[in-house]
Amino acid sequence: MQMCKPRYLQYTSNTAWIYNFVGRFIMNMHKSDYICRTMSKTDDILKNVVSHAKEYGFVFPSSEIYDGLSAVYDYGQLGSELKNNIKTYWWKSMVQLNENIVGIDSAIFMHPKIWKASGHVDGFNDPMIDNKDSKKRYRADQLIEDKITRYERDGKTDKAAQLQNDLDQAIKDDDLGRLKAIIEDHGIVCPISGTKNWTDVRQFNLMFSTKMGATAEGAEDVYLRPETAQGIFVNFLNVQKSGRMRIPFGIAQIGKAFRNEVIARQFIMRMREFEQMEMQFFVRPGTEMEWYEKWKAARLKWHLALGSNSERYRFHDHVKPAHYANAAVDIEFDFPFGFKEVEGIHSRTDFDLKQHQEFSGKKMQFFDPEINQSYIPYVIETSIGLDRMFLTVLCNAFEEQDLSTEDKKDSRTVLHIHPALAPVKAAILPLTKKDGLPEKARELMDELKLDFNIQYDEKDSIGKRYRRQDAIGTPICITIDHQTLEDNTVTLRHRDSMEQERVKLDDINGILQKTTGWHSLLKKFI
């Protein structure tokens, strides 16, 4: 059977990046079995989300005029707004609403001994396999996970379950030979060459290293941090003492991390430069599992508070937790390419603080006055990828609606982003460019922009302007017409329902506060 030739291969050079960054994920699947029937609706959804993200200024491929840089992206004018709103939502719900959680901002460069103590130098590895024909490198476990997804889409649930069990057992046993055997047994081929000519599976360290020093001879090897958590652990006593914190308490941080990902895949799901939102919660030893369950529930509630369908989320327990953990679970979201991790909750025990105590020679103990005892606290970690959360919001919000009637064909693309996260809170639209309507609209614009991110648009018909705002997720459009000049009322048009209502100008600020403000969203956590 012939491979399908997707429409986006015929696009102009302006959208050719979609083929480069997403098309390879869709097209370069196994040539023997990833045929036309598997070019499913879910693949089209991902392609459309990625195309939409660029067209409307959410995400651009980095260095695009130089043909891009693999697995690196830039956030555009609307993407940076949405990203900042997600960070604000996390920070407010984590730090502002919890008296015993505070925030810090640690440096990206840290003493190299930290990464030795944490285990990253010796153990921060992924199982990699090369195809001898294409010379391309892949993560062995992700090749197998892709096969599981295809089995599920083909209705072969028993095969998918058995393959998942085999993968879990191989990972649990650190059996690299078994991973290769699974790849061979299930006929998994290279997405580029279509062959099964594989090397052995081996471990590959993911940290970026660089030099720090005034001269080349005296320069010291340092690393770009692969996670933000260690910046919290090494500041544990600084925060505890300066803030007079008592167990249990948490330290939160939002920051960049860097990993030398070999595989550029699934858009912004897996990048070399990314942002994390992490909170380390320090607890008394022996109480960690109770807090672990509490944070599992709290973090899922945070996701669902945005109005997401609960069926698109699930918990996935780690078969083999990392060396520092005695329990670990992922919150997974059902992306167009299957369930993937968005956030991890880990019971890290006292591993990190104990390691830093040993390697630094400084005590990392807390004196607990309630039990008159000193101890190294245990830690519950919640870690969410900001970029993955961004993609979650886009995939959850994106909809192509057919609005056709018997008399007229019509459609719209709309982003049902929660109003509190929406990049633009409202659009002000004068019905015409004359008769004093633009001046009246500008007056309202000047008043509202003190509190909200507002767009002004007077180009094209009012219907086209509504569609543009729908496409970027603007919750409310405010139309200034001739009646406004008479009675100071405007037409409010709501994004999701497309319903319109007449309201007073004096009520607009309050309506926007209630609709798009943080109060109603954060109240769900009190």
Automatic annotation (TrEMBL):
Binding annotation for ATP: R259, N260, E261, E341, V342, G385, L386, D387, R388
A single Gene Ontology CC term: microvesicle
Keywords noted in UniProt: Aminoacyl-tRNA synthetase, ATP-binding, Cytoplasm, Ligase, Nucleotide-binding, Protein biosynthesis
Domain Aminoacyl-transfer RNA synthetases class-II family profile positions: 207-423
Coiled-coil regions, chain positions: none
Principal cellular location given in the protein's record: cytoplasm
Catalysed transformations (reactions): tRNA(Gly) + glycine + ATP = glycyl-tRNA(Gly) + AMP + diphosphate
Localization of this protein: Cytoplasm
GO biological process, one term: glycyl-tRNA aminoacylation
GO MF: ATP binding; bis(5'-nucleosyl)-tetraphosphatase (asymmetrical) activity; glycine-tRNA ligase activity
Alphabetical list of NCBIfam families matching this protein: glyS_dimeric, PRK04173.1
Family to which this protein belongs: Belongs to the class-II aminoacyl-tRNA synthetase family.
Subunit structure of this chain's protein: Homodimer.
Function text: Catalyzes the attachment of glycine to tRNA(Gly).
Protein name: Glycine--tRNA ligase
Organism encoding this protein: Albibacterium bauzanense
